[in-house]
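forwarding from the other thread:

> can someone predict this with magnesium ion?

sure thing
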Amino acid sequence: MAEQPTPHNFAALDDRWRRELAAAEARIQFLTHHDPLTGLPNRGTFLRQAADVFARAEQHGQCLALLFVDIDHFKRVNDSLGHEVGDAVLHTVAQRIQGALRVTDLVGRFAGDEFLVLLRGNPQDAAIDEVVRKLLESIEAPLLLEDQRSISVTASVGVALYPLHSTRPDELLRQADTAATHAKGRGRAQASRFTPAMSEAAYDALVLESDLTRALAEGQFELAYQPQVRWGDQTLVGVEALVRWRHPERGWVRPDDFIPLAEQRRLMLGIGQWVLAEALRQAWRWHQQGWLSVRMGVNLSAMQFQGGGFMAWVERALMECGAPGSVLELEVTERMIMDDLPDGRASLGALRRMGVHVALDDFGTGTTSLSQLRHLGVDRLKIDRSFVQDLPHDTAACAIAEAIIRLAQGLHLEVLAEGVETAEQWAWLAAQGCPMAQGHLIAQPMPAEAFEQWLQQRARPA
Ligand code: C2E
Ligand code: MG
Ligand code: MG
């Protein structure tokens, strides 16, 4: 066995070996305290250094600001460009964060794509805002890859203040994290300062989240059905299935209050599959009973659309209930398609080959360019209700609604207005050439039995 160098025989080693050994020791020291990829202090080191800074701030009655920096959509960089590029991005971002700070500030890599920054020296509001602005700007600057392609990433930043928000470092860390999540929720690429209301919302979300994981197994979801009709003779032209969550204590929870959470926690896949199966089962039953001859609209979430195997489970859902694709209209949003245009277009093409219609939901709120729309392969545009609600008195809403109607006409697409609440809105839309609508003026979304009654009443002669 090779003799181990000990302090006793260390002196006997030749100079070169001694230097190498010292360098290796220094490297081990560095690696135990730093993140090898970015060279920044690792989580443990940062927290230890921060503890000293907090202790001194307490002694001298100073303020500190803790920043939680989280890169937006970093998984996408890894997934689409590979881990090597992901590592290069993290390395560059780390350098840029350091570059935006003073040498006296602390910075560390917290985990994956998350960094922590502690601003020292009694920073005042304006100074904190300035650092945050510099941070966001420098991270966003285009980044040149080895193959000369240029990409750009953004970050969401959460800010918590010592001692204003808390005097406990662990609590401040949670608060900064919560504020960063809030910034992401507001659309990313921005900063949020912690407020106590965020904690309550985060706690609420946590409770809701654990309830949500059980909701599917416990059969707490139901569908409501909202009819879509044609102007003039009020012919039924479609039905939209809208999910509802009957929470055992809170009562009805609206989709806008749980779908974002379900998406974040990847629960939306299971919920979406249940919605599709249930809506199809119901639609096909109504078709076979002769009550319905129109399509059933089902909303998709980004997670369902972009996840692998999407086509397979639409096909399976149709097969399992024995319904043809022509019973179904899937509603997607512009953003879902634009996020991955080639894949999105391929999926839409495959759906149409199965006879399934595709509607672009909430149209006007996204970023579809006209040339892309021409080649997308959708059947229907649904004018978002945020425009419809301001008709016909708001000139901007009128201009947008009119432009969407002209666009649909030009591209030979169907166009339907959602959220029509007044006869005045309906008349204005029809006069502009939008012949179909859905909204409270016609009917609210209803449970299956109520919808059956609604259908029966219409069938009866007046
Ligand atoms: P959406 O697809 O745009 O659905 C239309 C929303 O407008 C529904 O809200 C409906 O109740 C509401 N609405 C209809 N007529 C009127 C009206 O005259 N006035 C007003 N103020 N609102 C009207 P809901 O049911 O709360 O659903 C909200 C959103 O949640 C939906 O917007 C859709 O994006 C999503 N969603 C609903 N069900 C599902 C689902 O099963 N899967 C997925 N992925 N998303 C769903
Ligand atoms: Mg919809
Ligand atoms: Mg909509």
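The longest helix spans residues 268-288. thats all i got for now
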